[in-house]
Write a structure and sequence with these properties.
263 residues, alpha/beta, Leucine-rich repeat, LRR (right-handed beta-alpha superhelix), 2 domains, 9-stranded mixed β-sheet, 7-stranded parallel β-sheet, 1 helix, globular, binds 2-acetamido-2-deoxy-beta-D-glucopyranose, Leucine-rich repeat-containing N-terminal plant-type domain-containing protein, transmembrane, leucine-rich repeat, signal, LRR_dom_sf
C-alpha cells in the first residue's frame, strides 16, 4: 500500500467518523436542551427566572443554574436552589444522562420523586432539602451507587427508610431530618463505611438501634437522631450506657466515638 492509498483510506475513515461524532454531540446536547425546556414548561416559575433565561436561542451551557462538562458539553450540574419554583419534579430530568449534581433545594416543589431519576447513574449529589416533597423515599435510590450526598431535609416524606440504601456504598452525608419517616432505622445504613454524617433528627422513627452500629462507621463525625421515638439504650459501641433518645437530643461523635454530648 503506497502513501496515497493509505492517506485516502485514513481520510475516508476520518471524515465520516467526525461527521457522525459531531452529529452525536449536537443531538445529545439538543436532548439536554429538550429535557430542560420540558422542565421549564412543567414548573411554575413566578419570578420568571427561567422564563427569561432558558431560551432556545442560547446554548444550555449558558443557562442560569446549568453547568456543562468542559469537553463533551453535556449538562453535568443543575442548581436551581432558592428560585421559588413550584410544581412536581418532571420525569424528563431522568434523561439528563451526564448529571453529576442535582440541587433543587429551597423551592416549593411537591409530589413524589419520579422513578426516572433512578436512571441518573452518574449522580454524586442529590440536594432536595426545603421543599414539600412527599411520598415514600424510593427504593430505587439504592441503585445510584455513586451518590455521596443525599440531602432531603425539611420535606414531607413518609413511610420507612428503605433497606436498599445500603447499596449506596459511597454515601458520606445522609440527611433526612425534619420529615415524617416512621418505622425502624434499617441497620444496613450503619454499614456504609464511607458515612460521615447521618441526620435523622425530627421524624417518627421507632425501635432500637443495632448494638454494633458504630463499629462499621470509621469516618462518622455526626449522628443526629433525637426527636424521634427511638427507645432503649445507646449501643455500647458509642460509649454511653443509658441514654433515652426521646428527651435527649444530639449525639455528636465528632472525631471519636467517646464523646457523647447532650444538648
Ligand atoms: C442567563 O443567566 C446567565 C447567568 O446569570 C447569564 O450569564 C446569561 O447571560 C443569561 N442569558 C440570557 C439570555 O439572559
Ligand atoms: C448551588 O448554588 C448555591 C449558591 O447559589 C450554593 O450555595 C450551593 O452549594 C450549590 N449547590 C451545589 C450542590 O453545589
Ligand atoms: C427519555 O428519553 C427516551 C429516549 O430518547 C425517550 O423515549 C423518553 O420518552 C424520554 N423520557 C422523558 C420523560 O422525556
Ligand atoms: C410555598 O407555597 C405556599 C403556598 O403556595 C406559600 O405559602 C409558601 O410561602 C411557599 N414557600 C416558599 C418557600 O416559597
Ligand atoms: C424545617 O422544618 C421544621 C419542622 O417542620 C421547621 O420548624 C423549620 O422552620 C423548618 N426550617 C426551615 C428553614 O424551613
Ligand atoms: C444491592 O445490590 C445488589 C446487586 O445489584 C442486589 O443484589 C441487592 O439485592 C441489593 N440490596 C438491596 C438491599 O437492595
Amino acid at each position: 500500500m503506497n502513501y496515497n492509498t493509505c492517506f485516502h483510506l485514513l481520510l475516508g475513515l476520518f471524515i465520516p467518523c467526525s461527521v457522525v461524532c459531531l452529529a452525536m454531540t449536537t443531538r445529545n446536547l439538543n436532548s439536554d436542551q429538550f429535557v430542560l425546556l420540558k422542565f421549564k414548561d412543567r414548573i411554575a416559575d413566578p419570578q420568571n427566572v427561567l422564563a427569561n433565561n432558558w431560551t432556545a436561542s442560547t446554548s444550555v451551557c449558558n443557562w442560569i443554574g446549568v453547568s456543562c462538562g468542559i469537553i463533551h458539553k453535556r449538562v453535568i450540574a443543575l442548581n436551581l436552589t432558592s428560585m421559588n419554583l413550584r410544581g412536581t419534579i418532571p420525569p424528563h430530568l431522568g434523561n439528563l444522562s451526564f448529571l453529576l449534581s442535582l440541587d433543587l433545594s429551597s423551592n416549593n416543589l411537591s409530589g413524589h420523586l419520579p422513578k426516572e431519576l433512578g436512571q441518573l447513574h452518574r449522580l454524586r449529589i442529590i440536594q432536595l432539602s426545603y421543599n414539600g416533597l412527599n411520598g415514600e423515599i424510593p427504593e430505587w435510590l439504592g441503585n445510584l451507587q455513586r451518590v455521596q450526598r443525599l440531602e432531603m431535609e425539611n420535606n414531607s416524606f413518609t413511610g420507612t427508610i428503605p433497606q436498599t440504601l445500603v447499596n449506596m456504598s459511597n454515601l458520606e452525608i445522609l440527611n433526612l431530618q425534619f420529615n415524617q419517616l416512621s418505622g425502624q432505622v434499617p441497620s444496613s445504613i450503619f454499614r456504609i463505611s464511607s458515612m460521615k454524617i447521618i441526620s435523622l433528627f425530627s421524624n417518627s422513627l421507632s425501635g432500637s438501634l443495632p448494638n454494633d452500629m458504630c463499629q462499621h462507621l470509621p469516618k462518622l463525625e455526626v449522628l443526629y437522631l433525637s426527636r424521634n421515638e427511638l427507645s432503649g439504650k445507646v449501643p455500647s459501641s458509642i460509649g454511653a450506657t443509658t441514654f433515652k433518645f426521646w428527651h435527649c437530643s444530639i449525639i455528636n461523635l465528632r472525631g471519636s466515638f467517646q464523646e457523647v454530648l447532650e444538648i
